[in-house]
Amino acid sequence: MRAQIQKLIRRFWGLIFRALYYPLAPLYDKISYYGFLGQWPKWQRAVLPRIQGKRVLEIGCGTGSLMLTLLERGYKAYGIDASPAMLKQASKKLEKAGYSGRVSRAQVQQLPFPDDSFETVISTFPTEYIIDPASLKEIQRVLYPGGRLVIVDTAMLRPFNRRARFLIWLYGLMGVWGGKKKDTSHAASTFWMPLAEAGLVRRDETFEDEQGEAHIIIALKVW
Questions:
Q1: CA distances to 4, 156, 157 from 37, in Å
Q2: CA 220/CA 42 separation, integer angstroms
Q3: What whole-number distance in Å separates Cα of residue 67 and Cα of residue 87?
């Protein structure tokens, strides 16, 4: 019975996330911001001090919020996403700020860039596609020798006020990773092998403040 309930919960959240990336894409920024009490953009920006060089590729750029920050800070940044609805939002946001032609529709398994194009590849809260060996092989291909992949893969709220405590309880009830400490031991063990096979050497870091924390993977291209 418990397994059936968990399966239904996973299916429900799969539908919710699909809706956010397609018909509800115009609401994505507000939902992610208020759903995590303003922490979501902070967690995304945790990649910034970990970027090396100026040429940056964002995998899964979504509505373009992080892309806009990168471009405003002088990075030669490009982004890809598989969702036309997300890219529509990103294009509007970037063109309004004077940046165009920076995002395109593509699958990470077939990146539309030459070898050794970027010093850093970033991805924040990607789904399972990020551990696909074909994805990692492509990321390794487009990285400079010595380049790095930076992933914010999970995060959690802390009970810093009443609303946070309520959301932690609610997300825990629904099995959402953002509401409680996630056991990443199994995920980590399954991720080491595809990273190593793709020629990427990993280390882990944490971004923390009073309201929450995010887990960050940094993988260096060694061959």
A1: 31, 11, 9
A2: 23
A3: 11
pTM of the model: 0.89
CA proximity to 142, closest of 79, 190, 83, 62: 79
- Are 79 and 61 in contact by the 8 Å Cβ rule? The answer is yes
Under DSSP, is residue 73 helix (H, G, I), strand (E, B) or coil? coil
For 127, list phi and psi in degrees, rounded to 5: -85, -165
What letter represents residue 151's amino acid? I
Asked if residues 32 and 40 have their Cβ atoms less than 8 Å apart, the reply is: yes
Q: ∠ CA 161-166-172 to the nearest 5 degrees?
A: 125
- Could you list the pLDDT tens digit for every one of the 223 residues in the chain? 656 655 665 665 556 666 666 676 788 899 899 999 999 999 999 999 999 999 999 999 999 999 999 999 999 999 999 999 999 999 999 999 999 999 999 999 999 999 999 999 999 999 889 999 999 999 999 999 999 999 999 999 999 999 999 999 888 877 665 555 554 444 555 677 789 999 999 999 999 999 999 999 999 999 8
Q: CA 34, 102, 86, 174: dihedral to nearest 10 degrees?
A: -50
